[in-house]
Amino acid sequence: QVQLVESGGGLVQPGGSLRLSCAASTSIFGILPMAWYRRAPGKERELVAFMIGSNIDYSEAVKGRFTISRNKAQTTLYLQMNSLKPEDTAVYYCKGRRGSADIWGQGTQVTVSS
Q1: Is the pLDDT reported for residue 70 higher than 80?
Q2: What was the pLDDT predicted at 34?
Q3: Beta bridge partners of 111
Q4: Residue 63 pLDDT exceeds 90
């Protein structure tokens, strides 16, 4: 059974906005979504933003443009992306934890192009 599911990706023009969602399985308890990563063409996967307890931080590339948040039940992680640039084009992945294990979603494509 899929444990994390990303959604909200798509094609957007430069300067536009998207909001990504990462939903933990409702049938498997104990999964905490906590971070967004991305992999752009020709580049390694990089951390975009994380939310661990009250600690929130962003990569320098997205700071001031992206906002990470979670719902009250801590079952859904969001990434609000504003002022998108072509270099933001990538597959975006959600990472969560269940106990000591890392849990990864399958990713959602974000393409920023005119």
Answers
A1: yes
A2: 96
A3: 11
A4: yes
Block residue for tokens 């990563």: 37
In percent, the amount of the chain with pLDDT more than 70 equals 100
Q: What is the pLDDT of residue 29?
A: 83
- Residue 33, amino acid: P
Torsion over CA: 37, 31, 69, 109 (sign): positive
HEC per residue, the chain? CCCEEEECCEEECCCCCEEEEEEECCCCCCEEEEEEEEECCCCCCEEEEEEECCEEEECCCCCCCEEEEECCCCCEEEEEECCCCHHHCEEEEEEEEECCEEEECCCEEEEECC
Paired tokens of 88: 């933001």
Q: In the structure encoding, which two tokens stand for residue 78, read together?
A: 């969001």
